[in-house]
Design a protein that fits this description.
The chain is an alpha/beta fold. The protein is built from 6 helices and 5 strands; from the N terminus they run βααβαβαβαβα. The chain is globular and about 35 Å long. Bound molecules: 1,3,4-trihydroxy-5-OXO-cyclohexanecarboxylic acid.
Length: 144
Amino acid sequence: MKIKVIHGPNLQLLGRREKDIYGELSLDEINSEISKVARSLGLDANIDQYNSEGDIVDAIGNAASKGIKGIIINPAAYTHTSIAILDAIRGCGIPVIEVHLSNIASREEYRKHSVTAEAVVGQISGFGKSSYLLALQALKEILV
Ligand code: DQA
């Protein structure tokens, strides 16, 4: 079963960026763990990172027509601002799970609210790379 994992802006800097908040692992290291766990669950994960809001909107909107059955997304900073991504999630016709490495509820005021959370099945926040791995498990349960 095909799924898509979308990493938002600046996540290509993982392992170098604010390590006290986001941890030591690079995006490649997290992605290989995601691929491994996805395979063990019978999921075929297509993983991409985008810095542009429009690219994320396109990726969400095109997913279903490419045979993708569900999406895991870390919208990063767009979480807190993007009605375009909210609308894309609402309109895409497949389940979407939102993840965050850090616990956004315990951070700055402007990070506490997720605009995109309104449209997702659920949100997993604060478990580092395990946020993605827990989301894989949850998506698998939704899709079977
Ligand atoms: C993040 C939290 C966001 O507030 C931030 O802008 C990010 C990463 C997280 O995974 O914890 O870039 O989505």
